[in-house]
Amino acid sequence: MISTSDASVMTLSDVTHSSHTLAAAQQRLIPATCRFRMRQVVASLRCRLNANMMNLSRRYIISAVILCTLLATGAQASESWSDHQTVGRFEIRSEVPVRQSQALSEFVRSLPHHESDIVSSLGLTPNQSPIVINVFQSRRNYLEYMTQHRAAGRDRRALFIQSKSHGSVYVYLHAGVVTDLRHETTHAILHSSFPFLPLWLDEGLAEYFEVSRERRASGHPHRSRVKLDARLVVAWHPSLVSLEAAQDLSDMSAARYRESWTWVHFLLHGPDGAKSVLLRYLSSIEAHIPPGSVSTRLREVWPEPERQLTAHVKSWK
Ligand SMILES: [Zn+2]
């Protein structure tokens, strides 16, 4: 385990504070959006490491890699796990015996289906890269752990970090823990297959798969708000090009999370041709071929994809 007193070890705080945009955004964290915000910090870090690697300073890249190693190693060294289960490539470490939590038990049982749903829906090549899921008994324990390992910020609810060797998910037990587990595990599964993902698509897919499979098409909480917005001209200005420009926290908001989810829903459940655009795009990324943008690919099919998106939303019952 890397010593946290080692001055040469960079922490999440160091990394995020090396980026003015991320640091500034963190200071605007508010409780109502802490889960979104913290996931965004990590997603931004991940996306920056991959999509924009050529533009990053050497220090930034090295710092982030060390950070991932630090947290992942720390999780493995913890002595507080009272339960340890393996499901396929997933390792679940929990401070509470899984069988004592109905939500946790159901999530663990559903993990193989969750993974196979994502793999089959997106045409991924299955892989066995390990994913470690760390479940803390309480927010207090979670925060103590994060403080011990000097991870930045206390306004977070769940965390995903991709290291060179595996993905790590960190959550704590609360009423919405299964949603957090599905969301963060979706990130982990995606990042085990893709060398990078655009921020909007990474979050849109995680939002889409964070609900149970029977609610994905027509039962997501975003749906009613998006339907309402689409009826109000003043509140409805979707723009995939604008979403694609999002690079970090300061570019995202709760509304942009909803719009990202809406585009993913359109791509998976929209008109003929929409899903094949998504699958070809993801296939290019998986094959390390420069993918261009989804908006450009959609415009090759529909000159105004936003009009198709609006028609799709208005078709919802
Ligand atoms: Zn996320």
Concise summary:
This protein is an alpha/beta fold and 317 residues long.
Explain what this protein looks like in three dimensions.
By secondary structure, the chain is α/β, with parallel strands linked by helices. Helices cover 53% and strands 9% of the residues. The chain contains 14 helices and 5 strands. Helix 7 crosses helix 8, helix 8 (199-209) packs across helix 11 and helix 11 packs across helix 12. It starts with 11 loop residues before the first helix and ends with a helix. Bound molecules: zinc ion.
Task: Give me some keywords for this one.
317 residues, 14 helices, 5 strands, globular, binds zinc ion
Number of domains: 2
CATH topology heading of the largest domain: Glutaredoxin
Give the class from helix and strand content and strand pairing.
Answer: alpha/beta
**What does the largest sheet look like?**
5 strands, mixed
Q: Could you give the order of strands across the largest sheet?
A: 1-2-3-5-4
Strand portion: 5-15%
Q: Indicate the percent of residues in helices.
A: 40-55%
The number of helical elements comes to 14
How widely separated are the two ends? 54 Å
Inertia-based shape: globular
Tell me the CATH superfamily of the largest domain.
Collagenase ColT, N-terminal domain
* Overall average residue pLDDT: 79
